[in-house]
Amino acid sequence: MLGQTTTTDAVSGGHAVSKEHNEVRQDIERSDANMLQVVLRRDIVKPLVDVNFGPQKAYPKILIGRADETDLKEFSQTVKILSDAGLKISRKQIYEKTGLMPPEDDDDILGGGK
């Protein structure tokens, strides 16, 4: 099986092995997505653009894959450090990155934000 890591291991099981399997599976998934992006761009996007608009200097890109997950604890700590250092950070960007929705006027609000 492609990506199998414990075929010849004397001991298998446990959290570390399952984590390693997951990382290998994610690597394979990313590699497959990258190869598919290249093929679709070369075999579909470029010919369609060429036929409809003529040869171009740049062509649209196709992105396939899962969005990278954000470690919210690490992200929050980074935002705090940078904002304490004086960096201006967009609240909109923080809401988008965390997946939270901005509160409405009549919402019960937690925290003391401005």
Would you mind describing this structure in some detail?
This protein has 114 residues and is mainly α. 54% of the residues lie in helices and 0% in strands. The longest helix is centred in the first third of the chain and has 40 residues, at 14-53. The model has no long low-confidence stretch (mean pLDDT 84).
The shape, in one word, is extended
What is the assembly state of the chains in this entry?
single chain
Tally of helical segments:
3
Number of E-type strands: 0
User: Can you give the mean pLDDT?
Assistant: 84
H/E topology pattern: HHH
Name the features.
0% strand, 114 residues, mainly alpha, 54% helix
Summarize the structure.
The protein is mainly alpha-helical and 114 residues long.
List the helices and strands and how they pair.
Blueprint: H1 14-53, H2 72-84, H3 91-98
